[in-house]
Design goal:
The chain is an alpha/beta fold and 197 residues long. The chain has helices spanning 4-12, 42-48, 68-76, 89-101, 137-149, 166-177; strands at 15-21, 24-30, 59-62, 82-86, 107-111, 124-130, 151-162, 181-185, 189-195.
């Protein structure tokens, strides 16, 4: 059995892995305590199959974790700016490190609970989120209304949720955006799309 001190030391080391997302070879560093630290989770993998931003798209990744969705999209939209946010300061720290690691100079992460610390005048072509299963009604309401306010006309919001939130998301996106499209329902996750008129 590894000595306790050695084991703890090993746990404190950065976790590093490679992934190919949207044909981009990416490298990620993460740590214990951040969502899915050792590999790209199934929801992230699924949503990235359905998003192809314009090369100059301005993108917002809500609840970015260590950055796999937003940083991949930043690489696909090198002429735009990608802003990522998370309410976990370690997630923000690792995302900013991963932006450098992957040469995504057009991406940066900030500490924010939803859109709380986003400049009120900032607008995006694309908002994307891997929505936590236990986000709660109040926070979801704030997130969707704030997303709508921060989107450019014609902008799109892509969300991935566990299947259990499918009807809830359909109802809420229709209410806030006036439209809704289910892009894909897999065995565990659903991809939702709405656009701002």
């Amino acid at each position: 059995m590894m000595e306790t001190a050695e084991y703890l030391k090993s746990l404190r080391k950065d976790i590093e892995f490679k992934a190919t997302l949207c044909d981009k070879k990416m490298v990620f560093r993460s740590t214990w305590g951040i969502f899915s630290p050792r590999e790209i989770d199934a929801g992230t993998e699924l949503i990235l199959r359905y998003i192809r931003p314009a090369v100059d798209a301005d993108i917002f990744d809500l609840g970015c974790g260590y950055g796999p969705i937003g940083l991949t999209l930043a690489k696909l939209a090198p002429q735009g700016q990608t802003l990522l946010c998370d309410k976990d300061f370690m997630a923000v720290e690792y995302t900013n490190r991963n932006a450098i690691l992957n040469g995504a100079s057009n991406a940066k992460a900030i500490l924010s609970n939803g859109f709380q610390h986003v400049d009120k005048d900032q607008r995006f072509d694309l908002v994307v989120s891997n929505v936590p299963a236990k986000v709660g009604n109040e926070m979801m309401t704030l997130m969707l209304h704030d997303a709508h306010r921060h989107m450019k006309a014609g902008g799109e919001i892509y969300l991935v949720t566990v299947n259990g939130l499918r009807q809830y998301m359909k109802r809420n996106l229709k209410e806030v955006f006036g439209n809704y499209k289910k892009l894909k329902q897999g065995s565990a996750y659903t991809i939702h799309l709405a656009s701002k008129a």
